[in-house]
């Protein structure tokens, strides 16, 4: 905020080049050693993650976007200081984490709150520090509102809250989503296609419609594909039922009610042009509500796509480091 108590908007562009950032933080970056793979037991299996940094430091919990995985933060981790640790999780049905049992749907926003609560209890943390991109940022928003005295800070990347949509559209898609869910539920590896490596990366790069680079697609697929019986061919690893997980089912009134409960420090980094929202005006309406009650509030804009943290992490890292006071 500035001296008048107003939130500041700064735009980071290519003027702050990657080499400059690397010179500044490489001497103390988290990627000096490989992250530790972790598995956290849950009733339906396990949650996988990559723990960057010392296990003796309570980590920032990093949550990725829908149909991504913990690898979404790999390039950003190379620019984070080793004085902190970060636990990047694969959400249920993503990456190396267990899929939900047959018959169980993904309600990813609400499930995310419950999952975070399980993890907090598992590690017996008194307070939690959250970093979230897209869906992960929406989950962090809901958790910070649900447990306002138990969150130290939230760093939210290119999302302010669960997306607010026209409720009539939710009504229109419900039947279709249920039928698609039942179809996906019956799929087995024998009934889904497999691809060679190049085909797999081509599919992913195309699916993101210019939002990620080819290098970024390859990073995501390190945890996003699994070997098929045909030599040098692969299946997608994520649960196909995630394609019809229920997103954006919250009204504006409900989102604003959650926003009013947030007390922790809050950093929001908006990519420009970033993600396209059905109701873009809701983004700043939510932030305006958060900054009234947050103990500290910062908003920044950076040039880039929705996955700017993966494609161009050098534009994100200095903002986070400054926010953390490191």
The span between the termini is: 18 Å
Strand content: 15-25%
**How much is the radius of gyration in Å?**
19 Å
Low-confidence blocks of residues: 1-27
| Helix-and-strand structural type | alpha/beta
Instruction: Give the strand tally.
Output: 12
How many individual helices?
Answer: 11
Strand order of the largest sheet: 1-12-11-7-6-4-5-3-2
Question: Can you tell me about this structure?
Answer:
The protein contains 11 helices and 12 strands. α2 (74-77) links the parallel β4 (60-63) and β5. It is α/β, with parallel strands linked by helices and 326 residues long. It has helices spanning 18-25, 74-77, 108-123, 135-146, 167-185, 197-207, 214-221, 252-259, 281-293, 308-311, 317-324, and strands spanning 11-12, 36-42, 45-52, 60-63, 86-89, 128-133, 151-157, 195-196, 225-227, 233-236, 265-273, 296-304. The strands form 2 sheets. The protein has a 9-stranded mixed sheet, with helices on both faces.
Condensed summary:
This protein is of the alpha/beta class and 326 residues long.
Annotation keywords:
single chain; 326 residues; alpha/beta; nine-stranded mixed sheet; globular; disordered N terminus
Break the fold down into its secondary structure elements and pairings.
Elements: E1 11-12, H1 18-25, E2 36-42, E3 45-52, E4 60-63, H2 74-77, E5 86-89, H3 108-123, E6 128-133, H4 135-146, E7 151-157, H5 167-185, E8 195-196, H6 197-207, H7 214-221, E9 225-227, E10 233-236, H8 252-259, E11 265-273, H9 281-293, E12 296-304, H10 308-311, H11 317-324
Parallel strand pairs: 1-12, 4-5, 4-6, 6-7, 7-11, 11-12
Antiparallel strand pairs: 2-3, 3-5, 8-10, 9-10
Helix pairs in contact: 3-4, 6-7, 8-9
């Amino acid at each position: 905020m500035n001296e008048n108590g107003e939130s500041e908007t700064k735009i980071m562009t290519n003027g702050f080049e990657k080499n400059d950032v690397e010179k500044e933080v490489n001497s103390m970056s988290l990627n000096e050693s490989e992250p530790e793979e972790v598995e956290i037991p849950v009733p339906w299996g396990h949650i996988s993650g990559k723990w960057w940094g010392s296990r003796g430091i309570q980590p920032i919990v990093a949550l990725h976007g829908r149909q991504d995985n913990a690898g979404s933060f790999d390039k950003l981790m190379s620019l984070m200081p080793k004085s902190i640790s970060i636990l990047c999780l694969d959400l249920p049905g993503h990456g190396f984490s267990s899929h939900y049992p047959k018959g169980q749907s993904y309600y990813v926003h609400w499930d995310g709150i419950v999952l975070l609560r399980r993890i907090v209890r598992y590690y017996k943390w008194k307070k939690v520090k959250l970093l979230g991109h897209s869906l992960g940022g929406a989950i962090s928003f809901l958790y910070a509102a649900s447990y306002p005295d138990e969150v130290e800070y939230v760093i939210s990347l290119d999302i302010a809250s669960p997306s607010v949509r026209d409720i009539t559209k939710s009504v229109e898609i419900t039947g279709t989503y249920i039928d698609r869910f039942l179809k996906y539920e019956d799929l087995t590896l024998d009934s889904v296609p497999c691809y060679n490596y190049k085909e797999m990366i081509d599919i992913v790069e195309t699916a993101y419609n210019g939002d990620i680079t080819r290098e970024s697609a390859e990073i995501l697929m390190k945890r996003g594909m699994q070997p098929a019986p045909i030599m040098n061919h692969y299946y997608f690893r994520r649960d196909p039922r995630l394609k019809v997980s229920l997103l954006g089912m919250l009204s504006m009134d409900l989102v604003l009610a959650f926003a009013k409960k947030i007390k922790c420090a809050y950093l929001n980094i908006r990519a420009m042009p970033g993600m396209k929202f059905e109701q873009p005006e809701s983004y700043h309406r939510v932030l305006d509500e958060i900054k009234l009650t947050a103990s500290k509030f910062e908003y920044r804009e950076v040039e880039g796509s929705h996955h700017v943290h993966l494609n161009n992490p050098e534009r994100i890292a200095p903002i986070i480091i400054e926010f953390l006071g490191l």
